[in-house]
Amino acid sequence: MGVGETSRDRIARRAAAELKDGMVVNLGIGIPTLVADFIPNGIEVVFHAENGILGAGPSPAPGEEDGFLCNAGGYPVTIVEGASYCDSAIAFAMIRRGCVDMTVLGALEVSEQGDLANWIVPGKRAAGIGGAMELAQKAKKVVAIMNHVNKDGAPKIKKRCELPLTAPACVDLIITDMAVMEVTADGLLLQEIMLPHTLEEVVRCTEASLKLPEEIIYIP
Amino acid sequence: MNKQRSLEEALDWITDGCTLMYGGFGGIGTPPTIIEGILDKGVRDLTLIGNDTGFPWIGIGRLVTEGRVRKVITSHIGSNPNAGRMMEDGRMEIIFYPQGTLAEKIRAGGVGLGGILVDVGMGTTIAEGKETVVIEGRTFLVEPALTADVAIVHASKADPYGNLVYDKSGRNFNPLVAMAGERTIAEADEIVPIGSLDPELIVTPGIFVNAVIAGKGVNWQWVWEKRAATESQGGPPRS
């Protein structure tokens, strides 16, 4: 972890390393939005926002905001050259049709089958679904980012999700403050560990079973 | 041909208990002058259909906050805590759909279809109890179309026939709800003479629009505008 780098930034930076040149990418609301700050040099991606922007750009300078040009979180953005606007049906056509190459979504729970739960906790006030189900089910690559355990220290990466699902078997990669895990046909493959966390700690904090690779990469 | 109306004339269609569709995403693209008019007129017991419930003092959220709404068909209420509270209290019924499914249900209503077939949400609780059909081996949910008594939209420009162009990301649900209202009221920031909009660039053809009213501009503070006490809630309306 760089000096002063928060675990949120660290997760976002690792997620940004999944970006490939030319990808169309949709970032969920919250920490996923930070991924845009860590785009690797030499990589150009097109940001899709489900409120009808293909080609969203960085935040405007203070005083330059436009009340009619905002991202899906309701905050001002800019557009890049070649951008287009569309209505919400077309914005979701792009997702449903499989034109979005990658999405980064926050998660409450992920199972070892790649099931994602991120929209409702029974008994708590639901904010609603938004575009999460389309993105989770239809984006070509789904990166789930989350804290490895909840505030009570209980695992959020489980054998089976207890919370209602956003979409079954949709997650391809899980990035947490402790580790990076790939969802494979026969379970979760632990690939990387974020130092100073240890293998023993990651295994203890994960309810799902983890397959180990020949070599684990430790991220400083 | 001239569909220009006063706000008062257009509001005649919006009555207690009616079903109201609205454009807007977090308030962006929701017609502020019509919302103000609905509040002033005192309309109650509305059923709303639209993407989200805005913020407490922004967009459609103002109708929710003022207790004018009985039911909402929407995809998200997270930015308006008042909507969440009223749902918990049982004062307001909320039905959630995935955002893209909601958009297509409205579009289907607008284009004269009975509904849509969609596989988003299969394997989740939102599919429970819903009719399904199998087409070429794939299972789809049957989602009926949505229409409304009145649809309200915001346009940057309208001509007197009701041809509309929108304003950047303010477009969102507007072109969809514009087609799905039994009557559609368009609020435009600028009303331009017939013939001055480029026919190649008109987004909503005027055939779908019943009334064009002159907008008075956004009368709320956006959440990102500088504000002291009510951070993230949206401030009360600007006087």
TrEMBL record, chain A:
Gene3D superfamilies registered for this protein in UniProt: Glutaconate Coenzyme A-transferase
Q: Which family does it belong to?
A: Belongs to the 3-oxoacid CoA-transferase subunit B family.
| Pfam families, per database record | CoA_trans
What lineage is this protein's organism placed in? Bacteria, Bacillati, Bacillota, Bacilli, Bacillales
The protein's GO terms of the molecular function aspect are: CoA-transferase activity
Domain of life per record: Bacteria
Task: Provide the protein name.
Answer: 6-acetamido-3-oxohexanoate:acetyl-CoA CoA transferase beta subunit
Q: Does the keyword Transferase apply?
A: yes
- Keyword annotations from UniProtKB, A to Z: Transferase
| Keyword Cell division part of the UniProt annotation | no
InterPro entries tied to this protein: 3-oxoacid_CoA-transf_B, CoA_trans_fam_I, NagB/RpiA_transferase-like
Automatic annotation (TrEMBL), chain B:
Q: Is Transferase one of the keywords? A: yes
Q: Does the keyword Transferase apply?
A: yes
Q: Name one GO molecular function term.
A: CoA-transferase activity
Keyword annotations for this protein, in alphabetical order, are:
Transferase
Signal peptide range equals none
Q: What is this protein called?
A: 6-acetamido-3-oxohexanoate:acetyl-CoA CoA transferase alpha subunit
